[in-house]
Amino acid sequence: MKKHVFIIGGGVAGAEAASQLVKMGFDVTLAEKETQIGGKLNQWDRLFPSKRKAAEVLDFINKNLVDSKARVLFNTEISKISKQNGGYKIYAGIEECTADAILISTGYDVFNARIKEEYGYGIYENVITSVDLEEMFRNGNKIFNSNKEEPKRIGFVHCVGSRDEKVGNHYCSQVCCVTAVKQAMEVKEILPRAEVYCFYMDLRMFGLQFEDLYRESQEKWGVNFIRGRVSEAAENIDGTILIKVEDTLAGRPLKMKVDLLVLMVGFVPSAGTTEIGKMLNLDLTPENFLKPADEHLDTSSTNLKGVFIAGTCKSPKTIADTFADARAATLKIKEFLEGSEK
Amino acid sequence: MNSFDIFVLPFAIGLYTLLIVFFAKVFDWIKHLPVGDRRKIGRGIRSRKLFGVVKEIFLESLIHRRIFKVNPLLGYMHMSLAFGWFLLIVLGAAESKIYGRDLLNTPWDPIFFKYFKHDTNEFHSAFFNFTMDFLLLFVLSGVFLAYLKRIYARLFGLKKTTKHIFFDRLAIISLWLIFPLRLLAESLTSGIYHNGGFLTDGLGSFLAGFMPVGHLEYTAWWLYSLSVGAFFVALPYSRYMHIPTEILLIAMRRFGIKTTTTFTNFSQIEVYSCPRCGICIDKCQMTSALGNEKPASVYFLNTIRAQKVKPGLSFDCMICGRCEQYCPVGISLMNHRLVQRNKLISNGYNFQFLKNGIPEKARIAYYAGCMTHLTPSIEKAMIKILEKAGTDFVFIDKDGGACCGRPMMLSGNFEGAEKLIEFNRNNILKSCADILVTSCAICYKVFKSNYDLPLKVLHHSEFILELVKSGKININKSGLRAVYHDPCELGRGSKVYEEPRELLSHALELVSTGYDRENALCCGGSLGNIMLGYEEKNKINAAVWKEMMVNDPEMLVTACPLCKKTFNKNAPVPVRDIAEIIADAVQISPVKPNHQLAPEQIAG
Amino acid sequence: MNQDWGYGINKDRQIDFDRNDRRLAEYIRKYVPSYKLCISCGACTATCSTANLTDFYNIRRLNIFLMRGEIDEIAKHIDKCMFCGKCELVCPRGVNTRQVILIMKEGIKKIKQNEQL
């Protein structure tokens, strides 16, 4: 009889793992709480570093998933998981499934920028997040401020909800720096005359071509970089945003009026990740992501036998890393299921 | 009547030592009191305030009313010891004077009365015998409770009890022995001569049945005298110095003397009035949340009395005022902390870089405060309310400005704070406003207490309540269940407890916690504590959250931007300011009828 | 005695790391451990009321000067702090900035009075 793998979360990691596991010869059920596959990727327009359309990647995983004929349950949330005969019994929506292994790929949420109240998200209309900007790109590259005018000056604030003890997230979300650079260039593409400023603490361009993007943004697009953490934003009567920052390289405080302020929101474990973690009593990292069995040697297993993790439920990741991680998890699951037959 | 034996000497020496040491101290305190304070005493003694003094001394020093409020059993323990002993002394003195027919008898006559007076068969002896025994029993019940408290403090509502210094231990041991020894001595004597009341004679007869009471009597009286003597000698160097000193304290406080910005001899009297009861230890969140008892006020006053103040300890206090609120002696503990800080801080900067602005003129001056600039939702809500109510207002610190001075004051730098106060005060006056409204509880406290402004100062919760009451804004009520957190500076600091609650009750359902009003906890974000690190503040805040959530509220509402910021980090439910709640609940005024027809109406 | 003889022995512009007095930095590191966490992001200076009102005050830069042992520079400006605590609220690393200022003042006072730190 075919072994059955139950996957929770149909984002990039879950969908990719599903089709790979079917190829390996397992029975796969994928539960997704939304009505479509792809998770947060649906919110992005283009991806760094090549600015390829996110839709291309979505098509790829969707096609693979359909071709694999894995069983997909949409609009389905997990209410309970219990142990049963060495495997697990999962209460998914109205269904009850048994599985020999579970893969958790419940992903991340973006940081709720309202918590960082001093930046004014949800208070001032012209303060938006990187996700909101991405939506503007998807809706036909139209960037307007609240007065329906094209902004003349746009500021990007790095590390919103990342590297910040005061909101409880002391870690770096990895992808926001390069995303800011990508978005800054896209803004310049759409509004060539606009001034774009990035306010950063450190620019963490860790990927192979990320530094090139940074360079391109300076060279080709004239994006400006100011080293300093924005302390607060205030609203002028005309709706423009006044930000306060220290230009740490000049050693003096600086104030600047911008027409649109974009907050580069970081990664936090998604509500689903936290919930499943609690349900199964999984070990968590100090950052409240799901903790792998071994940080180097086994990053796909958990403290629970037969429960595996993949994607951004265990740490912030790029799309490329998420794919690699999902595939790594499938190998680990295969090893586990075939080992248990002997 | 022969009334001398060598065993009275320990008692007599103890008593005279005590009197000499105490009055020398009193003389020194009064002599070096600031002139103004001495005048206040002079005037006070000749005024009707004296009746108040007597009343308070009776209620606090003898009955211990404030301790009753903290815990009735603890109150009874203190009352039985203090009031019981007081009555024993008074009645004992009367008894010895009546029998001896001598108004100037020796001070030990009443103490050792039963030893010297065996034939108590006069007509009033039944009364005295009964009453004195009854009082002794009353005191002994207190002593018994005191033993019990050492073993099981929780019964008295205390989680922690004070750790004592050497003289305290000496005094407490002798105090614990005095009354049991008195019982023993009087009983043994009564066992021989039957001159006691129901208690001592009963016990005496019982003991005489199997003990050589005649041989033991003399030793018991010796031990009794020794214990009283030891207590008296230790008293001025122990916590029991509070017994005589508190009387002075009550009188001087009633005459209007305070500890404000300098350490005067009145402050010294306050320090000596600390009974080290330890009520402040439990109230201190540094103890309850961080397990650090050292900063508790009782130990801090100890260091002042021993003249060994550590800078770290002076600055390691949130100035939340919980200890002061519950101090049974009413010592101004917060000011003591600030005064010690003041001694350590360098002063004298004049902030010459502050440039006076020219604010617009309006009837209402709105001062958001530094912290409110970091919580723009409060600012925006206030502007919305001010506009909705159609008030004539000016936002005087819209572009930031100088700090109100309260944080500087909390750091002990009173002189620096004075400069900031002067600067801001001028700016406020220039706006020619009748009302100053602030959104920050910290600013509010200093505006009220130190600015001496000739205009009405209102916290935004009070101001909005006035708007609601006068019908300038109408509020929709929702069924949301919220808990209100009293900010320290607004609640205990400025005694504004009811206005925010009344205002909120117009907009939502208030849920109580075990920590409301005077008993409110500090959120942990305190500007008062300069030593606490971020992690520790967080720990305190997490502990407060636990208490706030006991009745499952759906939201936490507060009235201070710093509290809001502090609560936000660990929030299990949304945290909002009272102004935000009202701004959201304000009824949209009925839309004026529009005579233009809508397109669908034309089509129809 | 620092005497200028007019022969171009101008004071060097460099931070003389080996010569500078870094006792104060060590003193503060000891009493305010969180002080070591500063990443010079500048949020403290950005929000600081004093820094916005006077050209010469910069709390982040004071920290840097302190670490390098440039005590004179600190002593000139430290008293301008109004203690309002906004810097502490915006600090992403949770540095107890008010305590840093307090201990700095105390340390400078001790150094001036030739007391041992």
How would you briefly describe this protein structure?
The complex is a heterotrimer of chains A (342), B (604) and C (117). Chain A is of the alpha/beta class.
Protein architecture, described:
Chain A has helices at residues 12-23, 54-68, 130-138, 176-190, 210-219, 271-280, 319-341; strands at 4-8, 27-31, 46-47, 52-53, 71-73, 78-84, 87-92, 95-99, 101-104, 108-110, 127-129, 153-160, 195-200, 224-227, 232-235, 241-247, 252-258, 260-265, 267-269, 307-309. Chain A is α/β, with parallel strands linked by helices. In chain A, the strands form six sheets. A five-stranded parallel sheet of chain A has the order 5-2-1-9-20, with helices on one face. Chain A is elongated and about 65 Å long. Chain B has a four-stranded parallel sheet. Chain B has a four-stranded parallel sheet with strand order 6-5-7-8, with helices on both faces. Chain B has four domains: 49-243, no CATH class; 258-344, Alpha-helical ferredoxin (Fumarate Reductase Iron-sulfur Protein, Chain B, domain 2, Orthogonal Bundle), CATH 1.10.1060.10; 364-469, Rossmann fold (3-Layer(aba) Sandwich); 481-585, 3-Layer(aba) Sandwich (Rossmann fold), CATH 3.40.50. In chain B, helix 12 (242-254) packs across helix 13 (265-272), helix 20 (376-388) crosses helix 28 (578-585) and helix 24 (460-469) packs across helix 25. Chain B has 29 helices and eight strands. Chain B has helices at residues 8-31, 35-45, 49-63, 65-70, 72-100, 108-111, 113-116, 125-151, 166-193, 198-208, 213-234, 242-254, 265-272, 279-283, 285-288, 297-305, 311-315, 322-326, 333-344, 376-388, 406-410, 414-430, 441-450, 460-469, 498-505, 534-548, 561-569, 578-585, 599-603; strands spanning 364-367, 393-395, 435-438, 456-459, 481-484, 509-511, 555-558, 575-577. Classes of the chains: A alpha/beta (342), B mainly alpha (604), C mainly alpha (117). Chains in contact: A-B, A-C, B-C. The B-C interface holds B 311, 315, 344-346, 348-349, 351, 353-355, 370-371, 373-374, 400-403, 405, 407-408, 410-411, 413, 416, 420, 527, 530-535, 562, 565 and C 33-34, 47, 49-50, 52-54, 79-80, 82-86, 88-90, 94-96, 98-99, 102, 105-106, 109.
